[in-house]
Amino acid sequence: MSDESQELGITESKSHKPGEWYAEVVQKAGLADYAPMGGFIVTKPRGYALWEAIQDALDGWFKETGVDNVYFPMFIPESFLEREKDIVEGFDPEVAWVTQGGHDELEERLAVRPTSESIIAPFMADWTRSHRDLPMRLNQWCSVVRWEATETKPFFRTKEFMWQEGHTAHATNESAWEEVWTRLGQYEKVYEEVLAIPVLRGKKPEHDKFPGADTTTTVEALMPDGKSVQGATSHNLGQSFAEAFDITFADEDENEKTAYTTSWGLSWRALGALIMTHSDDQGLVLPPTVAPTQVVIVPIWQEDTKEDVLEYSEGIAADLEDAGFRVELDDRDERNPGFKFNEHELNGVPLRLEIGPYEVDDEEATLVHRPDNEEAVEDRDEIVDAVDEHLAEIYDKLYDAAEENLEENVREAHSPEEILGTIGKHGGYVKTPWCGDEACEEAIKEKIAAEIVMQPLTDEGGTTAGEVPEPDVDGCGVCGDPADEIAYFAKSY
Ligand SMILES: [Zn+2]
Questions:
Q1: Where mainly found (predicted)?
Q2: Would you list the DSSP string of 355-398?
Q3: CA-CA to 228 of 20 to 30 Å: which in 56, 126, 198, 340?
Q4: What is the pLDDT of residues 432-450, one digit of tens each?
Q5: CB 310 within 8 A of CB 331
Q6: Residue whose C-alpha is closest to residue 262's, from 241, 237, 232
Q7: Which residues surround ligand 1, an ion (CB under 5 A)?
Q8: What is the dihedral of CA 149, 493, 76, 79, to 10 degrees?
Q9: Contact 402, 428 (CB under 8 A)
Q10: pLDDT at 1
Q11: Own/partner long-range contacts of 245-249 (Cβ < 8 Å, ≥24 apart)
């Protein structure tokens, strides 16, 4: 192996040092770099392209379901933030403040938005006159800042992160619930149909919901290292924000009523989950749905075959491009095929086409799947359909592996020893009856830093919150008191 290819390759192992491995994949696959200020990252073109793929999918679904995009200022006056007390208390330790503009001290401090309810809600109040203005559905794509003093982990933990935040107002609680489930369903869909990651749906326990919310619903994804990622959240805010910001409307009977509001968000943490879930010790692995390059063609020639091989390769590239695939023909002279294979593997190109003189003579192409190196030889005439099928197969492989990981890693436990032992040994989710007392979560958290990440819900998707199903066995898995709820414990990102 030359020095050059060693530098190119991943040196850490996913199974032994997942943290170091992840950081190396992010940098070497050209997704992001660390900024000069701790806690911030620079998103590079290939990383941003992945974020755009998520944006494109979600933004289209939002618009099909009545959402309009808007943009609000990144600063929120302190007096606005203070109008909803739960928001202030919930975010206070993490808010970054602007106190000076130019050389002058500001009369009122400005918060760099940690989330935008407090600046959007007062305008929704202005814009809502009658029931005919509702539901009002606004969304913005932006970044927010939460000044956490933790180690930087690109896309998982950064002080500033990209996200979308949706904010809606409704005439009835039922309408607000429909909204909450619509958005949670779209988040589930983006994970399962775009990112090839199955998720669990449920709600956060009372003590861990969004500040000011009635209910916080969540989609959770299990990473191969056994930790859970909160994939996206959708909150029913009840009337707390509408009351704090006077979002009222004249109902059909002309009576003044208070609206119900929701908010919902998905951040670039989804990119972290994507990278962590599928990638391996050779580098990045991407589902074809989001890969900036879906197919790379690597021609393999000698001096006397170069012209034929290149011409044949160009023909295939043109056909695939015409069919709408994102194709790259890697005809660089200065690199040998082995180097090219490694580089495209590192960058996560899902499908490689190898074309040498034999393929030209036989009118074929050799196809290699990135995730497992499975090879197939396909006819030149059928290449467009074949590529389409192989890309679909690659997506299914990635999804199936992630699904298997999830299915194998939900375990039941009925005592603190069993909960601790199971998470300690296997990671994953531990499902247990729970009495509802936060102290029981605390007891587990203190010992192994696992918490209740989710509670399953019955009847979800309707016009209510649904209910947490009753456990088969009575008795809280931690304290033994009567328990009528189920909780999923896990370590989390
Ligand atoms: Zn308990």
A1: cytoplasm
A2: E-HHHHHHTEEEEEETTT--EEEEEGGGHHHHHHHHHHHHHHHH
A3: 56
A4: 999 999 999 999 999 999 9
A5: yes
A6: 237
A7: 435, 437, 440, 476, 478-479
A8: -80
A9: no
A10: 40
A11: 245/83, 245/84, 245/118, 245/121, 245/122, 245/124, 245/125, 246/122, 246/125, 247/121, 247/124, 247/125, 247/128, 247/169, 248/125, 248/128, 249/128, 249/129, 249/130, 249/131, 249/133, 249/134, 249/171
Which residues contact residue 466 at a Cβ distance below 8 angstroms, ignoring those fewer than 6 apart? 457, 458, 459, 460
The two three-digit tokens of residue 252, written as one number: 């059909």
Side-chain-side CA neighbours of residue 296 (13 Å): 24
Q: How far is the CA of 417 from the centre of ligand 1 (A)?
A: 14
Q: Rounded CA gap, 357 and 367, in Å? A: 15
Q: What is the pLDDT of residues 99-117, one digit of tens each?
A: 999 999 999 999 999 999 9
d(CA 446, CA 38): 28
Q: Distance, CA 481 to ligand 1 centroid (Å)?
A: 6
Query: Which amino acid appears at position 55 of this protein?
Result: Q
Question: Which residues fall within 8 angstroms of residue 125, CB to CB, at 6 or more apart?
Answer: 242, 245, 246, 247, 248
SS (H, E, C) 76-100: EEHHHHCCCHHHHHHHHHHCCEEEE
Q: Transcribe 287-328 into DSSP letters.
A: -TTT-S-SEEEEE---TTTHHHHHHHHHHHHHHHHHTT--EE
Contact 491, 447 (CB under 8 A): no
**Strands across the sheet with 429-434, in order?**
410-412, 429-434, 485-490, 451-454
Distance between CA atoms of 271 and 291, rounded to whole angstroms? Answer: 12
Report the distance separating Cα 134 and Cα 318, nearest Å. 49
Q: What is the 439 CA–ligand 1 centroid distance (Å)?
A: 7
Q: Which amino acid is at 6?
A: Q
Task: Specify whether the CB–CB gap between 413 and 487 falls below 8 A.
Answer: no
Query: Residues with Cβ < 8 Å from 235, sequence gap 6 or more?
Result: 180, 209, 210, 213, 214, 215, 216, 217, 262, 263, 264
What's the CA-to-centroid distance between 477 and ligand 1, angstroms? 7
What backbone torsions phi and psi does residue 41 show, to the nearest 5 degrees? -130, 160
In the DSSP assignment, the letter for residue 479 is: T
Determine the distance separating the centroid of ligand 1 and the alpha carbon of 236, expressed in angstroms: 26
Give the integer Cα–Cα distance in Å for 57 and 50: 11
Task: Compute the distance from residue 247 Cα to the ligand 1 centre, in Å.
Answer: 39
pLDDT less than 70: residues of the chain: 1-8, 459-461
Q: Report CA(61)–ligand 1 centroid distance (Å).
A: 41
Measured in whole angstroms, the distance separating CA 310 from the mean position of its chain's CA atoms is 40
Helix, coil or strand: residue 162:
strand
484 Cβ neighbours under 8 A, 6+ residues apart:
436, 468, 470, 471
Instruction: Return the structure tokens found at 15.
Output: 């199974």
Whether omega for the bond prior to residue 350 falls within 30 degrees of 0, making it cis, is no
What's the token pair of residue 410?
Answer: 């939900």
